[in-house]
Amino acid sequence: MNTDQTLYELLDDFAAGKLTAEQVASIEYRLEHDPLFRSKAEQHQAFREAMKFYGSRNQLKTILEETHQQLEEADTTVPVVVMPATGWKKYWPMTAVAASVAFLSILGTLWMTRSLETKQTAIYKELRRNVDQIKRSQKIMMEDIAETKDRTKPVPIPGKYAGTGFLISTNGYVATSYHVVKESDSVFIENEKFGRQKVAVVLSDPANDIAVLRIEHDSVTSVSRTLPYSIIKGEANLGERVFTLGFPREDIVFGEGSISASTGFSQNPNAYQISVPVNPGNSGGPLFNESGDIVGIISGSQTETAGTAFAIKSSVVADVITTASLDTLDKPLVLPKYNTIKNTTRVQQVKRWKDYVFMVQVYKN
Question: Is the pTM of this model over 0.85?
Fold first, then answer.
């Protein structure tokens, strides 16, 4: 005898009240705490009800057949001119009842079928909810275990600054602001395309607030054959429209404005004053023109003057990189020279640009 058959016999005895008190208590406990057992019990109960209903239909069918036989016998024993009406009247109440019961049995069959389907759907939904709850519980348990393990390790403390950086070479060099990374013990960059990557600071120019980072992981140090933008070595025009991409929050943010002055804070000739709204997290982000070319690096904002921000000129960035001593670099830093997005729309330019702009995260041990 297989396990399911034994289970169904046990359920039959439970329904018939033939079990001991201990067995009844065991079954009631499983019905309350074991979803699979409860599901099988409900399915078996539905099957028993269906079989009981089926037996009632067969019994009704037997009654109707006997009634019909009696009618035929009555027609053969009673004279034709008198008995048909009398015989019909005699069995009319029984026939009417039988017809009503037959009609109700059809409706009952349809209702029972639909009821069984509805019950099965409800059982399936309940099982699905239970499985989802178990999965959620397991996930929470695993996260708690991981968190407990991590408590034994030293936790990096975020530094004072965090900002933005952007790719300036196809072999993994990233430009940002020096003040973003100056107090760092470790630096990471992150965006949607490349995920989270550890970087090393390979060039620092405090005077011009410029730093260059190198992605350390070899699998991402060659991103493409060429970058889609170039670095302008001349100066942008006063009033020229300019745009930014940066991480003043966790999502990348687009900004637009114009060159409002050809010099920066305190008439610094190496910077522009711009009318683009920026926040501390924008520091180190690219400033590009309508063709999509780099014209500067966002350097920060002067908090005493609302709405005033500054950017180091791209010509200064190019000079710092090309004249600095980079002999210690494993790979040469070659700035991009060609623009492949200048004839595209602003939306298309931003879609290309955002793959090469990173959130810069600074940590102190």
Answer: no
